Amino acid sequence: MSQTVHITAVVTVAADHAAAAEHAFAACIVSSRKEEACRQYVVSRDIEKTGRLVVSEVWTSEAGFEAHLASPHFKALGEALGKLDAQLDIMKVRPLDEAADAV
Questions:
Q1: pLDDT averages per 10-residue partition of the chain, 103 residues
Q2: What is the longest distance spanned by two Cα atoms in the chain?
Q3: Which segments constitute the ABM domain (predicted)?
């Protein structure tokens, strides 16, 4: 049985690049949600700091997540964010409720 992969990422761009970053994410959101291994792919805009986005992803397996990273739509997002000088903080996380369920 494979382990579910949870990703939380904080992406920050200059305020004047916020609309371009959101546009770049839009295509990736649609395509990512169509991937077989995708259980959740949500991108949220920080309402207090323009240019900061939070991404929450859940993948059915490490292999599914790796396939996502190799996908054309994810590569296009990476290129677009690179051109916007985005700062990325990407974390693989494990929800505490999974640990609580095991108790």
A1: 87 98 95 97 97 97 96 97 97 81 58
A2: 47
A3: 5-94
Q: Does this model's pTM top 0.90?
A: no
What is the DSSP pairing of strand 5-12 with strand 38-45? unpaired
**Cα–Cα distance between 46 and 63 in angstroms, integer?**
30
Q: Cα Rg for the chain, rounded, in angstroms?
A: 14
DSSP letter (8 states) at residue 15: G
Spatial distance between the Cα atoms of 73 and 32, rounded to a whole number of angstroms: 8
Rounded Cα–Cα distance for residues 70 and 50 (Å): 29
Asked if residues 56 and 7 have their Cβ atoms less than 8 Å apart, the reply is yes
